[in-house]
């Protein structure tokens, strides 16, 4: 069952006795748990029938004891087990999963990691027809743009392609961070605005549309020395706003993909995007960079990025400012 289908069922009042929500992406897990919490009980029923427990502070015995209770003055009770990955002896829940209490909704949030499907406890869950199992997977870069577009569409909004690119590149792949930034942007724009532009993103998300690491990356791709130096000068003048480790991390990601690009048998845009897990509109930059840099030079650049990342953290260059380090590094990349 998809995330959207689970949310829709909960909003209609259709629940499962067990929700086992696990995986590396916490956003989907939290959203499902919050939606079940919102719709499972009436406000007046919550006092006696809603229990929130945390994995590190509880044990299997107390959890099962709570789950086996009968609701008071309501048709069901709700138990939310958060941070379940921190609970000791989680595997002992196997017996409860085999015979869950029909009047209890048990929502288990097992976050930031996968779950071993070979275990007996997972087998018990998987056999239980009354249990809903949902794996919350991280979205790759090539899926983020479409996800943000769909999220905005659900709020009757559209977004310019370049503005979308800035959001994806600047906010990364942490969905909670993305949602918070986009929701803040929607509030700031106010009613009546139906399309998000580059200016909206630039003015409200904190990414300067001319001076940011992605424009620096593009300048390196096209070997635009003048533009690269202009951006570096701005970065050097405000190191707190443009921290060196963040810059090297993003450039390292790009040039690592570029190195992998040389070895791909199929260099069509769709094949590259799929193989390297990146947005299709970023493949153009890879293709240009591949013409401007040899494989040997790219390997050298990756080595440079590692070297200057270490130096920016105070190892081997304690008396050199980040601005000077950045200037040195960019000069060596371009020459």
Task: Put the structure in a nutshell.
Helices cover 55% and strands 10% of the residues. The model has no long low-confidence stretch (mean pLDDT 90).
The CATH superfamily of the largest domain is P-loop containing nucleotide triphosphate hydrolases
What is the class of the largest domain in the CATH system? Answer: Alpha Beta
Percent range for helical residues? Answer: 55-70%
Strand adjacency order, main sheet = 2-3-4-1-5
Major sheet characteristics: 5 strands, parallel
Order of helices and strands: HEHHEHEHEHEHEHHEHHHHHHHH
Structural class, from helix and strand content? alpha/beta
Rg, Å, rounded: 25 Å
CATH architecture of the largest domain: 3-Layer(aba) Sandwich
Strand content: 5-15%
The overall average pLDDT, rounded, is 90
Quaternary structure annotation: single chain
Q: How widely separated are the two ends?
A: 53 Å
Count of separate DSSP helical elements = 17
How many strand elements? 7
In CATH, the topology of the largest domain is named Rossmann fold
Q: How many domain modules?
A: 3
What coarse outline follows from CA principal-axis ratios?
elongated
Contiguous uncertain segments of 5+ residues: none
